[in-house]
Amino acid sequence: FAIARAAREAGAEVTLVAGPVHLATPRGVQRINVQSAQEMLAAVEIRVQQATVFIATAAVADWRPAVASEQKIKKDGSGQTPVLGFVENPDILATVAQSQHALVGDLFCVGFAAESHDLLAHASAKRARKGVPLLVGNIGPATFGQDDNALLLVDAQGHRELPRASKRVLAQQLVAEIADRLTAPKT
User: Fold this and answer.
1) Which residues contact 81 (CB under 8 A, 6 or more apart)?
2) Nearest to residue 148, comparing CAs of 139, 135, 159?
3) How far apart are CA 78 and CA 40, in angstroms?
4) Are residues 132 and 157 in contact, defined by beta-carbon separation less than 8 angstroms?
5) Domain spans in the chain, listed from the N-terminal domain onward
6) Can you tell me the distance from the alpha carbon of 51 to that of 74, in angstroms, rounded to the nearest whole number?
7) Nearest residue to 171 via CA among 40, 33, 61, 55
8) DSSP secondary-structure letter at 106?
9) Within 13 Å and on the Cβ side, how many CA atoms surround 43?
10) Among 150, 143, 141, which Cα is nearest to 170's?
11) DSSP string covering 36-88
């Protein structure tokens, strides 16, 4: 939400596709609420066609139950553990990054990686795997629920750290970095 706010304050037209969270929508930002990874992908695919930047910050679950129960799964007295099957959720960032809009250079995709260790190695690998020009990494457990953070920007040329600061300041720095990349001469 801090990045959406910073982008709007920088003059961007911002659409925020958000899962079930209790955060206020930044002023001037259009918010689309979704409940599942499939809904998020559908909402993003519709809106990204008119976008020039796609920033994927959501920590969407990798898996979902194959069959969702409409009711509580109750004990039956047998002592047997219920069997739950899972199916893979769509990879929203990779899907968008491989879209024609992104592949021809009309959409700049930014991904995020919240890691517990080996940040540079994991962020670099994720950037390559997802096919995005910029991956923003952080140490997740150290920042969840906190007002500050530190970021690592990883691209094809290497990496650069944004030192610990408030999330608002980091969001402003990230938006400025993305704007600089969009206006830089193509080489």
Assistant:
1) none
2) 139
3) 39
4) no
5) 2-61+84-183
6) 46
7) 55
8) S
9) 17
10) 150
11) SHHHHHHHHHHHHTT-SEEEE-----SEEESS--SS-----SS-PPPP--EEE
Structure tokens at 147: 């007002």
Q: What is the pLDDT of residues 32-45, one digit of tens each?
A: 999 999 999 999 99
Single-letter amino acid code for the residue at 62: D
**Maximum Cα–Cα distance for the chain, whole Å?**
68
Rounded CA separation 60/96 (Å): 14
Taking the model in full, what pTM does it have?
A: 0.90
In whole angstroms, what separates CA 162 from the centre of its chain? 18
Instruction: Tell me phi and psi for residue 32, to 5 degrees.
Output: -115, 120
Q: Mean pLDDT in the chain?
A: 93
Helix axes 2-9, 167-183, angle to 10 degrees: 50
Top-level CATH class of 2-61+84-183? alpha beta
Which of 118, 99, 117 has the alpha carbon at shortest distance from 108? Answer: 99
What tokens does 128 get? 């390559």
